[in-house]
Structures
1.
Amino acid sequence: MQKIVSLCKRRGFIFQSSEIYGGLSNTWDYGPYGVELKNNVKAAWWKANVYECDDIFGMDASILMHPKVWEASGHVESFFDIYLDCLNCKKRIKVNDPALKKATNTCPYCGKSGLTDPRKFNLMFKTYQGPIEDEASLVYLRPETAQGMFVNFLNILDSKHPKLPFGLAQIGKAFRNEVTPGNFTFRTREFEQMEIEYFVKPQEADKKLEEWIESRFSWYLNLGIKKENLRKRPHTKDELAHYAKACTDIEYNFAFGWSELEGIANRTDFDLREHAKFSSKDLKYFDETTKEKFYPYIIEPSGGVDRSVLAFLVDAYHEEKVKDDIRVVLKLHKDLAPIKVAVLPLLKNRPEIVELAKRIAQDLKKCFITVYDDTAGIGKLYRRQDEVGTLYCVTVDVQSLEDKQVTVRDRDTMQQDRISIDKLREYLSKKLNTEG
Ligand code: GAP
């Protein structure tokens, strides 16, 4: 993990937030490559779940919502963590920490006795809307994007007239005042979610849940995560959230242990019933064929953008021995790699070569995310591009001036092909658009 954190900083993927002021703990900023990778993850998710599905509609609800939303959802009442502090080492311990069960008055971190009484702590961030800071103006930063979709159920019925099953999909920020954040970007207080709320007939919910678990599992595999690093873990009855009848987590084998990337839950009709009760609106679905009115069940695949990005980074990280050197390379899937092509002049002191390389880069930029770099020798330039996962390096050399050809180096195999400049776009298109 330390290697990933260091590469992220060194190469401009992820920086500590407000670093020049000493940083704000557990908050992170995505740099030039990080934002591209994150956008590519989100685009791949949107493509698979919105563009390639006939029955899912995209949404972008606001972060601030009516406070009643969080009463109806159960978050005001029961979105708590219970924690203890160690009086000796000052570490904060969540009460569901398994290590604590073994010895209740012993700190699992320093092993000494002396823990505070359990304290309850609501995870929602509070703020005030408008100039007066009182109870009436209290609003919350949403702790999940899901509720923005439930409260728009009626708007979707009225505007799109969909038939069951259908879904809503949304990507956006969520905030939780976590008691024990950590493990780099894995658990933070500000993060992004990718959520689908899929409305189904109650009798079809179990089957649809299984279908969604398979579909979401395949999504990670299709984007290159190694099979041995991914698993499904069904929840036991006692760990289910208050709204869920069943839930399966997709977990990744991080250095700190198997950990949740996404949960796929059967939320039953809990949410629509609760919002109908609190809003006094009729949120039932009318089935035109059977003439029945009922609350649909909701299947919810809910994943974290930041956790996916971290898993893709960790999984793609490779160290390879090349001659007497170690090559660090990020073997990211082609759809996720921040940069597709880098154009590198072999000799930067030859203006004709530099000019030709810049012209080629400018041309390729129209089709692919391309960078031009002449700030070091070719060996160093290759190493830089490998470390950020650039798929192809195009090298322009002295011979290119004569034969109008360039060398294209493949990131993973390091194989080099000599390609005619006027065929370069076509060659790269084929590689980038068709090869898995
Ligand atoms: N709407 C259901 C829901 O929010 P969740 O399991 O609490 O379920 C869903 O969150 C996903 O959001 C998790 O699988 C994880 O990927 C991401 N997530 C939750 N809390 C997070 C945190 N503190 N930091 C980063 N990602 C988080």
Note: The longest helix spans residues 32-51.
2.
Amino acid sequence: MKQLIYADNAATTQLDKDAFEAMIPWLLDEYGNASQPYTLARKPKSALFQARRTIAECINALPEEIYFTSGGTESDNWAIKGSAFVDTVKRTTITSAFEHHAILNSCKAIERLGFPVTYIWPTSEGIIAPDTLAQIITNQTRLVSTMLANNEIGTIQPIKELCDIAHAHGALFHTDAVQAVGHVKIDVQGLGIDMLSASAHKFNGPKGIGFLYIRKGTQIIPYADGGAQENGYRAGTENIASIVGMAVALRNNCTHLEENVAYVQSLERLLLKELQEAQILFIRNGGKNTLPGLLSLSFSGAGGEAILHRLDLMGISISTGSACNSENTEISHVLKAIQLEEKQAKGTVRISLGRNNTEEDVEGIVGALTKILR
Ligand code: PLP
């Protein structure tokens, strides 16, 4: 059988085996509803408590600041809309032009309701420059929301500086950290951020579960009205199995963060070196400070879609842009925002290596790319 090489870890990751095993009891035997007062509910309730504590420890938050959601999209929607809808004077939201569509479309939704939104253009290296934010922010800004790391080109943003500028003007600061949580060290208190979105399937957890960190005291409306779950802010019977799986996956990734980063970066260096040795011409987008393992590569004059499909026929999964964009053959909004030349943009692919990749995978990818591009 043809060997598969999965190099699209920014789209999703393989479930951690410990996380999978930790989930099973909550699906089969311990199926009680954590909100009930009887014995069968006691263990799920305690698992929920423990998972919240584990996740909070991983990002240096308090357990009561972690709100479970269905994933990154929901967390982003909640942060943008939930913080706007408490604002009776409709102050401005500032975000960047190359956010994930979960943020951009949430911003469009509040704009339709009369909440102003201003979009910052990133630099050609994919950075949201603090100076640019400082120039446009006013005391009428309610929220600044910028991603921690871009999902197509991987650039890690100067979050602390951006957050400090927001706070100096009395605005809240939210970050979409969906690509970063479990892959780079995050300390919400050190950074000073008010809200942070995360999604388990990006850090080897199960799909359909995530969380929104909301700093204690932050003004926000509930995401879903109903029962008293999530302190009355996100009603609905808790998905204990997925929450436990998410906590185990995040704990494992955070415990092994440094070695995972070193390993994935060594694969990244190998891939770049081998491409150069094969004399394949490319440029790498996203500047110098990017997510470990995420490579946005432009092969001028080639077609990114064609490369993706030919690699797929060879058993290799990569992406042209973000997962949510793969049906769309237009140049992505991210590459447009960094003003990449059209010839380069059309020949851009995203290779995202993860902790499960091997040197053989990298050699397979380079070998296949060499065949396609020569
Ligand atoms: N934000 C970013 C930066 C992402 O990369 C993604 C998914 O690709 C999302 C949000 C949406 O996350 P989810 O798939 O959990 O809804």
Note: The CA atoms of residues 74 and 102 lie 8 Å apart.
